[in-house]
Amino acid sequence: MGSPAYDQYELIAPEYARTFAGEFESRPFDRAVLRSFADLVARSGGRTALDVGCGPGEAAAELAGCGLQTEGIDGSAAMVSLAEQQWPEVQFRTADMFDLPYAPGTFDAVCAWYSIIHTPAAALPELFTEYRRVLTEPGWVLLGFQTDGEPAVYDHAFGRDVELTFLRHDTAAVCAALEATGFTVYATTMRARQAQLEEPTAQAMVIAHTS
Question: Cross-referenced CDD domains, in alphabetical order (predicted)?
Fold first, then answer.
């Protein structure tokens, strides 16, 4: 199993949440992708979504605001606590995204918004298989991740000493892992790095469905 670095996020949760509070206000394109994803889910008859690796809950709140009945999970209890305080209209719980505590076919959509950035490419098929397990037929998945760059290793971040490696996934490799686990890619897009937002790399988004 790929390590999602949950223990490191226990250390940095408050500062991380402050750093990315209101992130979609300064990233309207990213917000539009999330809203388009929610529309695709609704148009296929879907009503429920799971945000895996939800962090402080910004993406989960966006999906809920689009009318989807949304839950969020994160392996960091500190992140879940912050999300619960900020977004009481969304249900959050602490769980490992490689071992989701839900029955097969529980959700119409899975969103993984920057939650695969600590998962090695070789572990993505295992992870996507777990996402697919909890999806209905048809079901949808949205991935957001850093791309077009080398991995970055941090020993200090968000005001704390940490051991964090941020992986920049190749979009074609991510799509191949999705296809290998039974998904059909619907759309891919890449947004250029925004220096004024202190982004280190370009950003990729991929939408896929199960049938």
Answer: AdoMet_MTases
